[in-house]
Amino acid sequence: MTYHLILGDYAYSSWSLRGWLLFEKFGIPRRETLLDFFDEAGVAAQMADHAPAKTVPTLVTEDRIPVSDSLAIAEELASRHPDAGLWPSNPKHRAVARTLAAEMHSGFTALRGDCPMNLRTAYADSAPRDEVLADVARLETIWAWARATCESDTPWLCGNYSAADAFFAPVAARLAGYSLPMSEMAEAYVTAHLTDPAFQKWRALGLEIGETLPWYKKDYPVKDWPA
Predict the structure, then answer these.
(1) What is the DSSP track for 46-90?
(2) Could you tell me the end-to-end alpha-carbon distance of the chain, in angstroms, rounded to an integer?
């Protein structure tokens, strides 16, 4: 089974990171195409051959069906590769993982808007708004709930690494990259992501490939990358 995975910029495309991790962490082969975020034509124009898809990541199946949403990609891969482990095998843990992934997919708009993923730069102080801090508090709540409910004794939320963790990988980059306040529990989870070999591979690609995009720059004091 041959998949084609279309991705955005390694350093800035948080949803592309999620989609890529769904393949990389679960050993699913694919060929990849990287779009150019600096191209004035825009993402949709670069994907004209895969209409109606117009966003990244997009998975193109072997029968040329574009699946252009990270959560849809997770479910499609889980259906096609039931033994890969994208979702926990334990029904209770699977329900928790799906709940968390869905909330990440549709929520945390203040955090996502104010702190776009930027794997090339980290900030010592981002002066977060109350709405951003509320999003961080919500993350703390659901992460602690997941770990307690699943009795996780691993670095991950529901025991073994799952699609839910893939969905929170860019969040970890945001929390660390913008020096947002967090508990020891959250910091440990963030560190697990930043030191994960797959995440580090993706960031290394982001440092080597593509342009530094000026519209992601923030006027905050800069610090070294936290991992």
Answers:
(1) HTGGGTT--SSSEEE-TT--EE-SHHHHHHHHHHH-TTS-SS-SS
(2) 36
pLDDT digits (tens, 9 = 90+) for 130-185: 999 999 999 999 999 999 999 999 999 999 999 999 999 999 999 999 999 999 99
* C-alpha–C-alpha distance, residues 143 and 64, integer Å: 37
Provide the angle, in degrees to the nearest 10, between the axes of the packed helices 70-80 and 14-24. Answer: 10
**Residues 31, 134: Cα–Cα separation, whole Å:** 39
**CA triple 109-126-193, angle to 5 deg:** 65
Tell me: the pLDDT tens digits for 70-121?
Answer: 999 999 999 999 999 999 999 999 999 999 999 999 999 999 999 999 999 9
CA-wise closest residue to 74 among 107, 51, 100, 110: 100
